[in-house]
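Predicting structure from sequence has reshaped protein science. With that in mind, we have picked out one protein's residues alongside their backbone shape tokens:
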Amino acid sequence: MFGPSGSLFQKRLILFELALGGLLLVLFGRLWYLQITRADYYREKAEQNRLRIIELPAPRGLILDRQGRLLVDN
């Protein structure tokens, strides 16, 4: 008496299952595209991101002892 009618409930359940199946199909399709189809592209992007050589000049100065006498010069 309080529950939905059997046929309406069955229709909604089938609709929900179809929507969920479609969503999973789209999700797995996208996963396939990214992992299999575009693997080489993303591998190259990862290598470019990992290997980055940047030379920075080291800020160096004079090294003095406590009396202010020069110990090391560039």
